[in-house]
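Q: What does the assembled structure look like for these inputs?
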Amino acid sequence: MKLRKYALAVSLAAMGLSFTLTAPVHAQAKGKQAQEQFFPVLVYRTGAYAPNGTPWANGFVDYIKLVNAKGGINGVTATFEECETGYATDRSVECYERLKNKGGGATAFQSLSTGATFALTEKAPVDKIPLITAGYGRSESANGAVFTWNFPLLGTYWVGADVLIQHLAKKEGGFDKLKGKKIALVYHDSPYGKEPIALLQERAKMHGFDLSLLPVAHPGVEQKATWLQVRQNRPDYVLLWGWGVMNSTALREAQATGYPREKMYGIWWAGAEPDVKDVGEAAKGYNALTLQHGVELNAKVTKDVLALVHGKGQGTGPKDEVGSVLYMRGLISAMLGIEGVKQAQERYGKGKTMTGEQVRWGLENLDLTQQKLDGLGFAGVMRPVSTSCLDHMGSSWVRVHTWNGSKWEFSSDWYQADEKIIRPMVMHASLKYAEEKKITPRTPEQCKQ
Amino acid sequence: MIYRENGQFKTSYAADQQIFPILQDRWAILGILVFAFVAVPLLADEYLFRAILIPFLILSLAALGVNLLVGYCGQITLGAGAFMAVGAYAAYNFFVRVDDMPLLAALLLGGATSAAVGVVFGVPSLRVRGLYLAVATLAAQFFWDWAFLRIKWFTNDSSSGSVSVSNLSAFGWDLESPTDVYLFCLLILVVFALLAKNMTRGAIGRQWMAIRDMDVAAEVIGIRPMYAKLSAFAVSSFFLGVAGGLWGFVHLGAWEPAAFSLDRSFQLLFMVIIGGLGSIMGSFFGAAFIVILPIFLNQMLPWLGDLVGVSISTAGVSHAEIMIFGALIVFFLIVEPHGIARLWSTAKEKLRLWPFPH
Amino acid sequence: MARQIGEVILDLQNVSLSFGGVNALIDISFDVREHEVRAIIGPNGAGKSSMLNVINGVYRPQAGEIILRGEHFRQMNPYKAASAGIARTFQNIALFKGMSVLDNIMTGRSLKMKANIFQQAFRTGVAKREELEHRAKVEEIIDFLEIQHIRKTPVGRLPYGLQKRVDLARALAMEPQILLLDEPMAGMNIEEKQDMSRFILDVNDQMGTTIVLIEHDMGVVMDISDRVVVLDYGKKIGDGSPDEVRGNPEVISAYLGASH
Amino acid sequence: MGFFLEVLIGGLMTGMLYSLVALGFVLIFKASGVFNFAQGAMVLFAALAMARFSEWIPGWLGIANPVVANILAFIIAAFIMFLVAWLIERLVLRHLVNQEGATLLMATLGIAYFIDGLGQTVFGSDIYKIDVGMPKEPVMVLQDVFAGGLLINKEDFIAALVAALLVAALALFFQKTSTGRALRAVADDHQAAQSIGIPLNRIWVIVWTVAGIVALVAGIIWGSKMGVQFSLVTVALRALPVVILGGLTSVPGAIIGGLIIGVGEKMSEVYLGPLVGGGIEIWFAYMLALVFLLFRPQGLFGEKIIDRV
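A:
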C-alpha cells in the first residue's frame, strides 16, 4: 500500500510537471524558418464520426504533400499539423488555440464541424485568421461584408437545400407540380441538421408543398420511431440531412420499413462511401448531392496523388481510398486554402510566407478559372470558382449522384442555387448577426483597400 | 518555514473559526492568490490562457458546484451539464433580450435561473436515492439537451439553434485579451470559492453533510431533508449555471447544446471524485487533472514518440490518450479512493509532524 | 434532589405498529412524566427501539395516539418531534462519520440557528455572531461530557465509548425537554458505564430533562430509573417502579425464558 | 389500427434489445454491486472483435464458409470477453472491494474509456460489417385484416427472438445450475456467500464473462443491423432507463422494463413527438422511468429498502 502511495505521489508530481511542460512542448514548434506556410488540420480520426472524418483528413493532408512534391506554393513549403478534435467543440477550440500561432502563424482553419465553426467564427476575427468551411458552417456567412473571416466556399446548406428542391421539381416536371407534395426532412438534431430548415420552409411556402421535420438525436443509431412516422405519412420524398452513422442507419431503416430508396435524397455529407458501402445493395437507388465533385478516380489530381504521394510511400491513408467522395472533399478543401495563399502571393510577393490577413485577401479574390483548375488537375472535378469581398461563397455548382449498389454515379446535370431566394435570406440573417455583434458591414469601397 | 500549528493557541472561538485557522495555511493561500493574480498574467502565454487556464478556472467553478451537491450533500448527479446549459442559455437570453444588461448581472441571473431549475429537478431526490437518483438526473440532461435544440425562443430564434455573444465587458473593463478574461474568471472563481467555503463551514454545510452521512439521524435532530437537499441542488445549480454562462460567453463565444452534453456531466463528476468528494480544494485538483491530463497526453505522446524515433498517427495518439486517461482514473481510484485532496491532507499531516514522525 | 417529578408530558395510547404483516408493537400504552427517568426494558426483539422510533416519528404506527403536552398526534414525524423538544441517541450510533466531533454536535443546534443561506454564504455579522453563540453553547456541552480533547477529531476515528458520548452530546445540543436514549451503555465496560450513568443522571438532574431510556443492563436500569415499562414480543407486560417490576411474575418469566 | 400495432410491435422489439443490454447491467450489479457504465464499451468491443475476426479468419485459415468463420469468430470474441472480465476482476474490482457506489461507477467509466481506446487501436475505427445472414427485407402480414397490412421487420423479429432465448437461457442458468445458485447467493449477501466457501473472485469473473457474452450478442444484433462502429456505445445509454424502471437487481425487471421503455419511447415519438417538434424519445424514456420511480423508488421489481435505526 505504501508503495502505491509513493507511486501516486510520483504520478501527481508528474502531473504538476506536465503543466509546466505543456508550454515548452508547444513552444518548440514556434519560430520556424520563414518560407514555410503552416496549415493547421483539425481532424477527427476517432469517436463516433471517425469513419467520415478520416478520409476527409487523409485527402486534406495528401494534397498538402502533393503540393510540396510539386515544389511547394511558388517555392514555399506547406507544413501542417493535425490536431484531434473528436468532433467536440471544446477540443476544437483547444486545437485552434494550440495551432494558431504555430509554424509562423496558421494560414486558415477548417474545422469540419458546424458546432466548432460557430465557436471559431467568434475567435477568428480577433486572431485575424480565415476560416474556410467548404460545404458546411453557417449559411449566412456567405456575406463577406459581415463575416469578414468566414469562407463557406463552394456551397452552404441553404444552397444544398435549394438545389434539392430544384431537383425534385425537375423530377416532377416543374415547380408547380410540387404543390401538395409531401416532403420529409430527416435531420441530425444539431445546428448542422437544422441549417436547411429555414430555406426549406421558404420554399414550402413558395411552392405549396408540405414539409415535415423529423429530427434524429445524436449520433443517430436509433431511428425506428422516425421511420415509423415516415411509413405513416408516406412522404413523396425524404431529404436526409445526416452525418456519420446516422446515414447508413437511415438507409437500413428505410429498407426495413419498405420506403423506396429512390425517393431519398441526401445532402453532400450524406452521400459518400461510408454511408452506403456497408448497406450495399439495399442502398441502391439512393441519391445524394455532390459538392461539385463526386468520386473522382480518373481525375488527374487523383493520379498525381497516387503517383507522387502514395507512389513514394508518403500516403496518409489506404491507397484505395484515394478518389473517394470524402477524400476528394478534403483534398479540395486543402486546395482552396493553398490557392488562397497563391492568390495572396500574387499581391504580397511570390515565394513569401503569407499572414492570415494576406491569405484572407487571397481567398476574397480567388479566381479559379477552368484553365487554372485544369492545370491543377481538377478538370472534370469542379467548375470555376471566384469570390469577392462581398461574396465569400464563390459558386454554387451542385450535381446529384446515385448509388447503384456498388458505386456512386452522377445522375443529374449541374444545378445552381436560386440567388433570388438565397441572397435575401443571407442578407437578412447576416445583418441580424451584424446588429447583434455591433459590426458595421463593409462597403464595396472598403473592399478595394 | 516549518509547517506547524504548535504554539498557535486560539484565545477565542472567533479565532478558531477563521477560514484557515493555521497561520501557515493563511500564508500559503495568500501566496497562491498572489501567484494567480500577479505572476501568472506575467508568465503565461496566450495558448496557456485560452486553452488551459481559462477552461480550468471555469470547470473548477463547475466542479465546485458539483462537489457541493455530490461531495457535501451526498446526492449523485449525472445531469450537471444540463444545469450549465440552463445557466448559459438563460444568461444569453437576459443578455440579448434586455437592453444594456451588464455581463455580470446576466451571468448571475443565468445562475439564478439554473438554481430554480435545479430545485425542480432536485425533487426526485426526496424519494429516490443513490444510483437510482444518478440515473434519474439523466432525465434533466436529456430533457434540456432537447429543449435548447427544439424551443426556438431559447436561442432567440436563431435558425440553426446555435447562439453567440461578443463585445463583452464588465464594469467598463473590456474582456478582450486573454489576460483580462483570465482575471475575470479568476475573480469570479475566488469569490465563489469563498462563498462555498463559508457555506460548507456554516450551519447549511453541516446540514448537507449530516444528510449525506446519515439522513435518518439528521432528520431526527431537526434537519429538514427537503430543505437541505433542495438547497444543495439550488446552490450547486447556481454555481453550475454561472460556470455554464462563463463557458459559453467567455470561453466558447458561440455554443450549441452539445457543449454541455452528457460527456460534460461525466467529466465534472470525474473531477470531484478524482479531486476528492467533500473538499473545496479537491474540486480544483480534480479540474486540473481532468482538464490538463488529456491535453498533456495529446501533446506529450507524439513528442515521446519522436524521442524513440516512432511517429505516432493522430488517431493512435488519441486512442492512446483515452486509454491512458481511463487507466489513470482507475489507478487513482484504487490507490486513493478519497481523491487527491485526501492525499494532500495526508501530506500536510506528515509535514506537520516532520521531522519527528511520532 | 433538586428535580421534582411533574405532570405527564408524553402519553402513548394504544399504539400498534407492524411491518408487512409482522407486528412490532401491539396496543401499547404508557406515559412519561416530566423530569423523570423512564426506562423501557425487554428481551431482544421486544420492540423497544420501535417504540422510540414511534415517539420521534421515524416509524408511523398504524393505530393509537401520541399525546405530547396535551396535544394529540396520530403520528409524529422526525422534524415535528425535534421541534417539540424531543432528542434521541441511537443504538448503533448514527453519527455523521465524515464530520468532526465539534461539527457533529453543532448539527444539534440546527433548529435554533436562524441565519439564512445568503447570510451564511457571505458570513455577514448575523451569521458570524450566531455561529459564535452556538459554538459557546456547544463548548459547554463538550466540557460537560469531558470530550474537549477530541473536538476536532473526525468521529469515525473515535473508539466506541467516545462515539456514544458524542452521540449524547449531539442530542444534548438540541437542549431537549425529552431525551430518548437507545441503549446508551451497550458494549461498554464497567467504568464507561459508570461514567455514562453519571452523565445521564447529571443531565436529568441539572437540566431537568425528561429521559426515556432503553437499556439491557438491569443493574443500571434499576439504579437510575424512576419507572420502568417492560415489553415482550411487542406487548407491554409490566409497568411501574423498579421494585414493582422486579416482582412481577410475567416479567420474570419473560426474562427467564429469554436469552438473559 | 394497423399502424398502431406496427408501432407497438416495433416498440416491443426494440424493447427486447434494450432488455438484453439492461440484463448486462443487472447481472453485474447483482453479483458485484457495481453499476457498470462500461457496458456500452463492452458491447462495442465485443462487436468489433466479432466483426474483425469474421473478416480475418477466412484469410488466415483459408475457410471460405461464412458460417464456420462466424462461429469461430464468435468463439474467439467470447474468449476475449472472458479475458476482459478476468482482467477487470484482477486489475480493478479486486482492489476496489467495499468502496462506495459512486467510486465504483467512476471506475467503470475509466474502464469504458480504456476499452474504447483499446478497441479502436486494435480493431480500427472504421465501420465494420457483421453478416450473420439476417434477413433485411420486411414482410407484410395480415393484409386482409388491416388496410395496408402489417409490416413486420424480420430482422428485428429474429433479434427479439434471440434476445428472448438468451434471457430464458440465463434464467435457467441461474435457477438450475450450481454456479447459478452460487451467483444468487453472492447477490444476496457477499459475506455470507464467502463464509460458506463460495469464492467471490471466481464468481465475479463468471458474472462479468456472462455479461460480456450478453454484450457480444447485443453487439452482434445491433452490429448486423447498422454496422459495427463507435456509436454502439450509446446503446447502453438507451438501456439505462430500463434498468432503473425495472430495478437494478431484478432480471424480470430488466425484461418487463425493456418492453415498457421500448413501447413508451416509440409511442411517445410517433404520437406526441409531432406536437412538440419531435426528437423526444430519449428524454421521454428517462422521464417515464423517473415518474415511475417517484411512486416506487426501488424500481418495478427491486427489493424494498427499509431504514433501520
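The longest strand of chain B covers residues 163-164.
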